[in-house]
Amino acid sequence: MDERSVWEKIADQLRSRSMWMLHYCTGCGAVELPPSMTSRFDMERLGMGPMATPRQADILLITGYLSVKTLRRVIYTYEKMADPKYVIGFGSCTINGGIYFDSYSTINRLDYYLPVDLYIAGCMPRPEAILNAFNTLMEMIRKGEANGWKRYKENYEWYKQNQLRSLGEVIVHDEFHE
Amino acid sequence: MTNSMNNNVAEILEKAKKLFDVRVEDIAERQHKLIAENDKTIPLLAFLKESGYSHLSILTCIDWIEEKRFELVYILFNWSNGVTLLVSTFIDRDKPVFYTVKDMWPTAEYYERDVHEFFGVEFEGNERCRLPLFLELWNDLPPLRKDFDPLKFSKEHFPDREYEKDAIHEAKIIRADLEDTRGDING
Amino acid sequence: MGEVKLFFGPNHPGMHGNFSVHMYVEGDIVVKARPLPGFLHRGFEKLMERRLWYQNLALIPRICVPEPDINEACYAMAIEKIAKVEVPERAQWIRMIVLELARIANHLWSFGGIGGPTGMYTSMFWSVSDRDRVLDIFEELTGARIYHMYIIPGGVRKDFPPKLEEKILKLMDYLEQRMPEYETFILKNRILHTRLKGIAKIDTETCLKLGVTGIGLRATGVPYDIRKVDPYLFYDKVEFEIPTATEGDALARMSLKPKEIRQSIRIIRQALEKMPAGPVNTKISDGNGLRIRVPKGMAYARVESTRGEYGYLVVSNGEETPYRVAVRGASYPQGLYGVEHLLPGTRIDDVPIWLDTMGVCAPEIDR
């Protein structure tokens, strides 16, 4: 089952010790991130830190509901990130829509558009849950189970088709309307 | 609030009744609703703005679908005596056009874009009224109209997660268990 | 030198929340700016028409993420105005304590927010951990850290648990002795002081023209506070002052925050003292407990949030669900019109400071 070469196994061991999380607050879950980053819960002891640019980040944290307008940007961001990359869905609304199940502007299921490695349930998940999720993700990376980025490449057509179905067009316009 | 200020409010409401022929409803202490005719609303707003009700809290819209009309509500606030006036006017639902107040309150430009986006009301004189603001690539009915069904839209566009397990059935089993051991969980 | 089009946000460490500003810049001066809201649009106003009056309580705190209690308070107060219900006295005092605790939490949060754009992360580490102490009180009181759903139409959900009052008083003592430290070590710190002084200036006339309320207005010297002008709850029965500054710049706005925290501490102490014993909630209407019906009518309720006037217009048709709810986000004027017309002329690196100190909060604009 494990198709990784020895070098990949070693690389995964090392990767799991230094994870950079993209600093993108897509939803209200972002309000629990500063407490988990700062002194009380201190995420940095796990070797994790926030990163400003998608090019250098390993983890894309989807903090909550995604409106279609944000999803367009999130897909751009995800495709910009370098391999290997991991996606964590944060909160009930990424799993099945949560309380926004009938909203006309938010999606109901994140793994239909992007490959999700791990979900954190709850609204909102506590900082302890976030840290626990990061620990689990590290464990998954070590075992070679977190390969959402490979799935995205293999099923690229399927993901694109789903994105087009819900978003109409994956393109970013500017606000000047020229 | 002191007595003189209350008199002041009464005076303004009296004047508004006489000059602009409005109907006044009292909602609470320091909160009144003024229902004006279509063509007298803008002069009424200008008059109230001059009389101290200079803060526009919000401009919003209500869809009365059974009466086939939209109600536009302008909420004005007076910083000196703390009185809120809700100025409301009705426009035709099939031909929703009204006049802009962006010259009186510059922020109203964005409220009008907001109302246009969610209800489809056009504001004459606001050139950027038709531009999208919150929604991107929207091509359905304006979403806050009563005849728009968000659940149907969501089902069409955003697929749901399909559960293999019947969660509701399981919940019933668990609940029955609880009833055996601990009695009614509602109690 | 040509103009360059620059997208600032939504994915940017200097941007607070999911909001975007598109600009044309020449050198590093902004020439034209347009706000781009809507990334957090969930259609709350539509969803609320589809839920029961009580079900909405789970929905509304999510409109303003850092300070959720004001939503519940506004919604509850508007319903009480329509139904003409008298809320028990104790519930009113408890609501005041909760709102003031939320104000303290949000002011501390904004000290964390200013850490990013100025590069002074000490501020963030201090204030976020102090905010967690307030959240612990909330957790004990309501069971949740962020979204409390504690204030309900007709009162509050439950009475204070035992010994909570002492804990609140102890926290107030702690925060009070902490405030001078914030003022000396953070606001007078060279990094923050030189970075904020004279930046993002705004004058009274512009504020009043735009309808900017809250700290943005008070930093220009106008003591307008809804708690004084249009008192809700029992704000007319407690003594407090409204701190103002005259400079109208980012530093003035930041320096008002510790002063406001002090006033909140004062209000909480008085409220704890004056709070009588008694019931904490009352019924809005007869019939099934959760399926209440609110009589026909329309009312607007507003509170003073940390960013300014926050209001709900609630329209009832006499049904089990609201007919229409409209939300007035406190940062609507400065976040949309203000960004478009006040940002041109500032430098790019001052834009996040402008957005942060004016209190532009994306979820309440988008709803």
Automatic annotation (TrEMBL), chain A:
Keywords: Quinone. The keyword Ubl conjugation does not apply. It comes from the Bacteria. NCBIfam families: PRK06411.1. Pfam families: Oxidored_q6. This is NADH-quinone oxidoreductase subunit NuoB. It comes from Fervidobacterium changbaicum. Residues 25-136 form the NADH:ubiquinone oxidoreductase-like 20kDa subunit domain. Coiled coil: none annotated.
UniProtKB/TrEMBL annotation, chain B:
InterPro entries: NADH_quin_OxRdtase_su_C/D-like, NADH_UbQ_OxRdtase_30kDa_su. It comes from the Bacteria. Residues 37-150 form the NADH:ubiquinone oxidoreductase 30kDa subunit domain. SUPFAM superfamilies: Nqo5-like. Signal peptide: none annotated. Pfam families: Complex1_30kDa (PF00329). Belongs to the complex I 30 kDa subunit family. This is NADH-quinone oxidoreductase subunit C. It comes from Fervidobacterium changbaicum.
From TrEMBL, chain C:
It comes from the Bacteria. It comes from Fervidobacterium islandicum. PANTHER family: NADH DEHYDROGENASE [UBIQUINONE] IRON-SULFUR PROTEIN 2, MITOCHONDRIAL, NADH-UBIQUINONE OXIDOREDUCTASE 49 KDA SUBUNIT. GO terms for molecular function: NAD binding; oxidoreductase activity, acting on NAD(P)H; quinone binding. Belongs to the complex I 49 kDa subunit family. This is NADH-quinone oxidoreductase subunit D. Residues 119-283, 292-367 form the NADH-quinone oxidoreductase subunit D domain. Keywords: NAD, Translocase, Transport.
